[in-house]
UniProtKB/TrEMBL annotation:
Protein's recorded name: Sugar ABC transporter substrate-binding protein
Signal peptide: 1-37
KW Signal (keyword) present: yes
SUPFAM superfamilies (alphabetical): Periplasmic binding protein-like II (SSF53850)
Family: Belongs to the bacterial solute-binding protein 1 family.
InterPro entries according to UniProt: Bact_solute-bd_prot1, SBP, TAT_signal
Record carries keyword Amino-acid biosynthesis: no
Record keywords, A-Z: Signal, Transport
Highest taxon, organism lineage: Bacteria
Amino acid sequence: MPVVTGESPLTRPLTRRRALQLLGLAGGAAALAPALAACGSSGSANTLAADAPVAGRFEGVTLKLLVNQPHVTSFRDILAPAWNKETGGTLEVTAAPYDQLTSKQILDVQSGTGEFDVFDYFYFGLGDLVDAGALVDVTDWIDTNTSAIGVDGYLPSIYDPYTLLDGKRWGLPYDGDIHILFYNAELLERHRLQPPTTWDEYDEIAAKITKDSRGAAYGAIVSGQQVPMILGCSYINRLTGYGGNLVDANGRPELTSDASIAALRHLVDVAPVALPTPLQIGFDQANQSFLSGQGALLDTWTDMALRAEDPTASKIAGRWGAVSLPVGGTNKTPRTALDAGFGLGISTASKNTEAAAAFLNWATAAPQNLAVSSTAGAGIDPVRGEVLDSDGYAKVVTLAIEPIREGLHGDPLVWPKANGAPKLLQDLVDQLALAIAGSQTVEQSLENAQTSWENAAT
């Protein structure tokens, strides 16, 4: 059985190519910060043979996986038994907290430990992993086996963002993460309110329910833990709602735009009426509070639909709903973002690359993607169009299917993913947190973040 174990940076010239490299939008893994160790470089990374298998029997082969903690169920309980049955191989699953995942994957390779074969990686950490020499280049293998892998079946909105860097492929998409807005239908009905379509309406709902409930419930749950995966998502959800972007068309940071200011100001203003205390609310706290009926509104990952409808885990089964993220300001078009998101890649320290390659293909194929996307607690969302559009998936996510399809079939905002991107995102959320805590103004926080990103680019 598997186991879970001098010159002003604001005026310094910033070239278009350098800015695009900064954010991974030119296909380049630019050197934005010193490498974690001098021994790692993308040039020395292994390359998977073009004729490596896409399937096979692997009796006696144990693949060791280092995965995101919320994904353990998908690998251990769903994929591992099926992989063993179909191939004879074994999966051994080790979990890492989401705020340590990329660094632990790099450390495993660069320390010489080399324990793991497959990495469940954040796409925004792709540049750091490639620069550290931690991922095998799978470009030739994919190009040779395009049909067998079913490359055309991956959602266009996520295939390149999750796998492509510096003109090469480093993995296959596994978890198509976006956020939508979930609501507690009972709380809204009790207060004679409708689900919000704008952030102004969201504010009105949050304030009214919190005031009228007098501590029994809160109008909003705001996930504000000071890491990119949590507070970063909450800010970016509002940024897209107000029609903003992290960068402009030339790749230059836009963190001081009107939309960005509105997004952060929204987080600051809603905090007093949100579930206490936003900066201490992480993934688990937010989910449990919503599922227990404590909050009316929560923007979070789409697999909440499965959790909410599971009577063994939820007190609001049959009494919830979901809509696209609200809009604000002059923007009238809902848009989501690729919030977090994961691919599967092969560690350069693996001694089982053939089995690992076959596993990447198998685990991201439609049958497995449907299985993990349809299981409550697995934490996985579709990466394939046929899964997203299937009746089987629609049946399990029920009321959330329309906003999910709208988001993944749309033009979601892509996070930076070049070398150094995790640090830049952490710099951003550190500044966001200072504003939410009242330690500095919204404008100063965003100016500081803008300076940090521009410094990195030059």
